[in-house]
Amino acid sequence: MATNRTFTMIKPDGVENGHIGAILEKINAAGFRIVAMKLTQMTKRDAESFYGVHSERPFFGELVEFMTRGAIVAAVLEKDNAVEDFRALIGATNPAEAAEGTIRKLYATSIGENAVHGSDSDENAAIEAAFHFSGRELF
Ligand code: RTP
Ligand code: MG
């Protein structure tokens, strides 16, 4: 995976609340190219593995419950400086602390149900993209 790619999910709350179109519009307007995309649902095992770094945190059970409760949109995005620029576009984890105009400020409802995921490093972007997509699904 090139270092100009990141991985994102529109989380179950974003899908349930009807924000897929608006969030993709923000992503397009910010200059990201969609390399791969699908509507899918994570199993409990998927979510426990994907967010395994947080397994000892008090919110882990709630996070796994939330991430598996409905459909998500998984996508790989391409742009110069993709990981950092996408984290800026989504805003802080807690929407109450997210900057104006960011996706989480606009569409997240709480620190737990915060509408979108964004990879936090080039290394994790590659791991997370491979978690959801095979080589032939990347365009
Ligand atoms: P993400 O990995 O989903 O992009 O989120 P992030 O980097 O901004 O935040 P992170 O610390 O990696 O936390 C992962 C997700 O766990 C949920 N969370 N809940 N209740 C809480 O205090 C709490 N803290 C985190 C959120 O869904 C967060 O995005
Ligand atoms: Mg994170």
Automatic annotation (TrEMBL):
Binding positions for ATP per the UniProt entry: 11, 59, 87, 93, 104, 114
GO molecular function per UniProt: ATP binding; metal ion binding; nucleoside diphosphate kinase activity
Main subcellular location of this protein, as a coarse class: cytoplasm
Record-listed E.C. numbers: 2.7.4.6
Reactions catalysed according to its record: a ribonucleoside 5'-diphosphate + ATP = a ribonucleoside 5'-triphosphate + ADP; a 2'-deoxyribonucleoside 5'-diphosphate + ATP = a 2'-deoxyribonucleoside 5'-triphosphate + ADP
Domain of life, per lineage: Bacteria
One cellular-component annotation, GO: cytoplasm
Cofactors, names only: Mg(2+)
Positions annotated as active site in the UniProt record: 117
Keywords: ATP-binding, Cytoplasm, Kinase, Magnesium, Metal-binding, Nucleotide metabolism, Nucleotide-binding, Phosphoprotein, Transferase
Domain called Nucleoside diphosphate kinase-like: residue spans: 3-139
Enzyme class: transferase
Pfam families named in the record: NDK
Cell compartments where the protein resides: Cytoplasm
Single GO BP term: GTP biosynthetic process
Described function: Major role in the synthesis of nucleoside triphosphates other than ATP. The ATP gamma phosphate is transferred to the NDP beta phosphate via a ping-pong mechanism, using a phosphorylated active-site intermediate.
Subunit structure: Homotetramer.
Entry similarity comment: Belongs to the NDK family.
Name of the protein in question: Nucleoside diphosphate kinase
Organism: Polaribacter pacificus
Gene: ndk
